[in-house]
Amino acid sequence: MKYTGAYLGKILRVNLSTKQTSIQRLEEREVAKLLGGRGIAAKLYYDEIGPEVKPFDPENKMIFITGPLTGVRLPSTTKFQLATKGAETSMYLCSNCGGDFGPFLKKSGIDGMIIEGKADDWTYLMISDGEVTFGDARPMKGMTTRQTLDALKEAIGDKRAAALSIGPAAEKLVRISYICVDTRAFGRGGAGAVMGSKKLKGIVVKGSTTIPVADQSKIDEFRKAAIKNLRETRANHTKYGTPQYIEVINELGCMPTRNFQTTYFEGGNKVDAHTMYDQYLEKNYACYMCPVACGKVCTVKEGPYKGARARTEYETVALLGPDCGVDDFGAIVKANEVCDELGIDTMSGGNAAALTMELYEKGLITKEDTQGIEARFGSGDALIGILTLIAERRGIGDLLAEGMSGVLAEHPEWSPYVMQVKGLPFAAYDPRGFYGNSLTYGTSSRGACHNVGGWTIRAELTSGKYDRYALEGKGLLVKTIQDNRAYVDSLGICTVVRGSMNFSDSPEGGVMEAVTGYDFTPELLAIGERIYTLERLILNREGIRRKDDMMPERIMKEAVPSGPIKGQRLTPEMYDRMLDEYYEVRGWDSDGVPTDETIEKLGLKELIA
Amino acid sequence: MHTARVNETESGVCVTLKYLASIRDRTGCREESVCFPEGSTLADVLSLLGEKYEISLPDPQILLIVDGRGWQQLPVKFSTPLQSGNTICLLPPIAGG
């Protein structure tokens, strides 16, 4: 490799059907164009997972790739990427995760791994300095995610090893199940169920490889400066974590409330970050090398949910709380714990519970469907009961376990109440409050995701360039944020710290050269654009077109009925204008397909040949 | 109501100031209603915040939102005249959750 640091040049391939492993090269020409992480994972997906492959086919693969910064001694170099055909959406899924696993994978001597095939019976993988052992996971069947992590670490004989696992929900192929990665998660899109379909219960990894870098002394300087910057700019994040946004998003009038029926939750102050901090916070936790430590472990100290313990984040609190009408933070922690341990994504779980409550209140389902649960908005017990039904595939839970696409296939008449794009339920922002956010959900590479799709709210509030309700300019805004995120996801660092190392939409500084020996910096945003377009080509190959980039009925037809943005609406004509602009700035045709000129301009032609 | 710059019986414009998330740690209250003389502008709110809480704006660590829009979006920025019923929020920098 021409790069003198960061990359190890090796990808591990593990076939669960044959129990054989091999090492393949990480191609230098692909690194030059796609950087690592999300970019390389997308390219491998393009090459190896065709449109005919279904999520639970043995031919589906799980492609885990680190980035050049993963594991390097800089703040929060924690991230690694997963590409697979998602169980929840039955299309390309990209997922990004923190914790220790990514850095430890690299310390094991590999840049990533491709898991393929399907085991005969429940299996776990133990990776130690790149050597793979296939373990018998039959005794782990039925274990929660946390119990499995403990069992895996016991198996490898090192409590400090990193591990990932699935819970009972994924064993039952619940399509909204997640992969637990120590304290973090591959949450959205149903990667847990894909792992379950392969009868792979978990992976544990440790290693002693020193990750090479081009210039350690410069890296030390960058680290000190970044830590100083983060202590000054992220103190609020350290204290309150992402739950600090509950109060903010509610006040701005885009809080999903009772299944997005309205956008302001009257009980917001009962579930905000101050309530969390004063009454429920047990301790902070940090991802690998992160000085911010924004993670929050919360415990319920009294009341009906006493003893519940979970790691709360904004999206989780918003979707299990206000979106289900629940204003009891203790109930939210308990629901979070149920999701975490049984193995359900809290965001899809929250959306599914909110949908159930609306259907129940409208008389479209009954207690027979809910197995006796009085599924009304505001009930913590109902929320926890519905999540358990899903994880155990009982009653209405068996249908909800098929994800929103499965629900719509069975009950198309419920479409007015199903908040999703491409089968992925909404994140916790109502796009009628920030029009750019609708384009975010519509054009995200994995469905209605605020991260991959490009989180616009701050720019729409404070950039001075765009009003939140303006249409013009939102296409370029969303594209720029998406491209920024695509390259950051490929670097292997957390988005929370990217500013401290100048990885913005105008990247600058010398971190990349100090780590890799090559100055990627001027090319980073273009690399992000290349990755995003490659992902669109994959989606096009899987049948995705303009028709799939649309908002659900509620957003297009209903004005917000109450709260700070009462009366606000977004019509199909308004959305179409923004989408047209977006396609134009992306160089995609009017049906959302990248043109030949765009493919040529971005240097994708040879990559997809 | 925690403070008033003019007697509430006098004519004036009364606005609601809301201190969200970590900003509340600096002000000690969630919100307050404040009245200003007729003709006051957003700059007068900034003066109050400086005097009372030692909050100096503009500050990249504090976002100031007037009726749901950032001050940067307002045509005349801090010269924007106050209107009775304005809700002015101060919040920390935000990013996706």
Describe the 3D structure.
The complex is a heterodimer of chains A (609) and B (97). By secondary structure, chain A is an alpha+beta fold. Chain A folds into three domains: 10-206, Aldehyde Ferredoxin Oxidoreductase,  A, domain 1 (4-Layer Sandwich); 241-401, Aldehyde Ferredoxin Oxidoreductase Protein, subunit A, domain 2; 435-601, Aldehyde Ferredoxin Oxidoreductase Protein, subunit A, domain 3, CATH 1.10.599.10. Chain A is built from 24 helices and 17 strands. In chain A, strand 10 and strand 11 (184-186) form a beta hairpin. In chain A, helix 2 crosses helix 19 (474-491) and helix 11 runs parallel beside helix 13 (346-361). Chain B has 97 residues and is an alpha+beta fold. Chain B has a single domain (13-91), classed as Ubiquitin-like (UB roll). Chain B has a five-stranded mixed beta sheet, with no helix packed on it. In chain B, a hairpin with a 2-residue loop joins strand 3 and strand 4. The A-B interface holds A 233, 235-236, 239-240, 242-245, 247-248, 251-253, 269, 272-274, 313-315, 318, 427-428, 450-451, 455, 457-458, 461-464, 467-468, 495-496, 564-565 and B 18, 20-22, 24-25, 30, 60-61, 63, 65, 68-73, 87, 89, 91-97.
What's a quick, concise take on this entry?
Chain A has 609 residues and is α+β, with helices and mostly antiparallel strands. Helix content of chain A is 38%, strand content 13%. Chain A has a 6-stranded mixed beta sheet with strand order 2-1-6-3-4-5, with helices on both faces.
Strand order of the largest sheet of chain B: 2-1-5-3-4
Shape summary of chain B: globular
The largest β sheet of chain A comes out as: 6 strands, mixed
Q: Roughly how many Å is the radius of gyration of chain A?
A: 22 Å
- CATH superfamily heading of the largest domain in chain A: Aldehyde ferredoxin oxidoreductase, N-terminal domain
Order of strands, main sheet of chain A, comes to: 2-1-6-3-4-5
Number of helices of chain A: 24
What is the second-level CATH architecture of the largest domain in chain A? Answer: 4-Layer Sandwich
**Biggest sheet details of chain B:** 5 strands, mixed
- Briefly note the CATH topology name of the largest domain in chain A: Aldehyde Ferredoxin Oxidoreductase,  A, domain 1
What's the mean pLDDT score of chain B? 90
Overall SS class of chain B: alpha+beta
Sheet-strand content of chain A, in percent, reads 5-15%
Q: Give the % helix of chain A.
A: 25-40%
